[in-house]
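Forwarding these from the shared drive since the link keeps breaking.
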Amino acid sequence: MVSIKLLKKDNYLAMIKNSLNSRAYSDIFITNNNHKKNITKNGSLSCAYFVSSILKIFNLIDDLHLTVAGTISELKSKNYQSITKNKILPGDIIVWSEKNKHEHIGFYIGNSQAISNSSKLKKIKKHHYTFNKQRVIEKIFRPKL
């Protein structure tokens, strides 16, 4: 008998990396007083949706989130381990300091690189994990894989 086992961590890391240049997380629509609205502004505000979507697919959280605060709240309620910068590993979730009144969240992928939604390019991009020292890492969470 053949024994097959899904490799959760490997698949999780592959999905994060394979999201590069994706616009799949760019649009979330709601109706407000019967007016349709794209609340992620065509990809400008999609970082939390991107991160929570990956976490939800792997049953690491219960709900999708459209805000960084909502995502962080669930990570804390699930007792995610808080990690220091010197112990960061691929797949860890990074929360960066606020810029232009917006928080930011993404994934560490190794070699001082991260993947997150680019509000400027409106798609998932790879970048230095401190944005070349332009943003401070406020928190790092380790998923339970």
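-- next protein --
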Amino acid sequence: MLEGSAKGKKLKITQVRSVVDYPERQKRTIKALGLGRPNWWVIQPDTPQIRGMITAVRHLVKVEPIDDQPELQSGDNM
């Protein structure tokens, strides 16, 4: 179903720069990712479509991979 990505993988995408003075196409891409202002962040699935949008605005965002499954820390199972 999700070709090109591991099941459960997600990306935390943070907008680090404003879209002022950038082309309209990049502004629309930022909006399609769910962002809108610097320091806003969203979690999106790791799909080829999302990766393509990130590539188009890579100078405006920071991307961190995250695992969808929570990790147990010591003391969490009490």
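The first strand starts at residue 9 and ends at 15. The chain has two helices and three strands.

- D.
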